[in-house]
């Protein structure tokens, strides 16, 4: 039953959630932090046409987040540049947080990622949800694009709640 659930999830991601996402065979590095996504990340990336380069995918019950993952995104950034990859994902152990590295090995924080995504969501949804910890540059960028940054208290549950209540499509912490 677990295999069919994963297959159903991958099918939903590929066909409904992100039907236009295609990595076109490009290398994508994923640091799985020796955690929950150690087996999932390569399958998800392949489903979107990536050539995955997976690191820190050997959980042993004690090494989760140990010197890797989103706590140490410089590890992913180094592999991205060494492998001449398109991008890198630094996950945390339970897979609910990610930092990105671009093709030049630069680490992009959450505000930078939301700023990039805002260019695509603001034409239809004029609000981006973020916490009070997001920087002023993000707020100014969203304003320049004709939108509003809605700030919430710190915590992903506050962001998710504001997104649900307002029907907003982009938010993060």
Write out key terms for the chains shown.
173 residues, alpha/beta, 6 helices, 8 strands, globular
Lay out the secondary structure.
Layout: H1 2-17, E1 27-31, H2 40-47, E2 51-55, H3 73-83, E3 87-91, E4 98-101, E5 107-108, H4 110-121, E6 127-131, H5 136-144, E7 148-152, H6 156-166, E8 170-172
Parallel strand pairs: 1-2, 1-3, 6-7, 6-8
Antiparallel strand pairs: 3-4, 4-5
Query: Which regions are unreliable across 5 or more consecutive residues at pLDDT < 50?
Result: none
> On the 0-100 scale, what is the average pLDDT?
94
- Strand count, sense and closure of the main sheet? 5 strands, mixed
* Pattern of helices and strands: HEHEHEEEHEHEHE
Structural class: alpha/beta
Evaluate the radius of gyration. 17 Å
Tally of DSSP β-strands: 8
Read across the widest sheet, the strand sequence of neighbours is: 2-1-3-4-5
Helix amount: 25-40%
What sort of overall outline do the alpha carbons produce when their principal axes are compared? globular
What is the CA-CA span between the terminal residues? 34 Å
Portion in beta strands: 15-25%
**Count of helices?**
6
